[in-house]
Design goal:
The protein is α/β, with parallel strands linked by helices and 208 residues long. The protein is built from ten helices and five strands, in the order E-H-E-H-H-H-H-H-E-H-E-H-H-E-H. It has a five-stranded parallel beta sheet with strand order 3-2-1-4-5. Strand 1, helix 1 and strand 2 form a beta-alpha-beta unit. The longest helix has 14 residues. The two termini are 23 Å apart.
Amino acid sequence: PHDEYREPFVGGGSVYFGKEKVKYNWLNDLESNIIQTYKTIADPELIDWLVNKVGSEVASRERHLEMKTFEPSSPEEIAYKTYYLNRTSYSGIINKPAWGYKLGNSSPPENWHRFLNNAHPKLRNVKLTTLDFEELIYAKPRGKEVLMYLDPPYYLADQKRAYIKSFNLDDHVRLSNALKETSYFFCLSYDDCKEVRDLYKWANIYER
């Protein structure tokens, strides 16, 4: 039970969108285009614009290439480009040109309006930031009980392929130290490797 929820590495937000919304919610990611997309979805004056833009789209290799080279001229156009590429790219990866269009990777554009309209109330009045993860871990509580979910860049992952904002060894150590010091409840997802187990030997580890 908690009345404040924080995600320092929200990414696609599958955990947040799958759980009950509480009184205070704080979503964060260093990838500013993702946060801008969430801000646009949350905005009652922009959500309809975004729904109409993506609703008239087609998912094709040719359109995917066009959107890669599209230069946004406003924050909402950044959201439009980011959402389209995420929906149509291989595994949702949009940071490397080599990772291109994936036929059938996700639900077709005619369904996108439903996803956006469902996400809109979930993002209303949510704190959305692009800060270092320590700022969320050390920030004073607004609620009575804080729960954090953290899904950082994995230790053994190909950082350049999988992440726009990658981790180095110091970042992994900083995260472990910050979580060891926090009084907040947290759940942390990581790859299961010796290095991670050594960093978190002080924590309760559950195999998936």
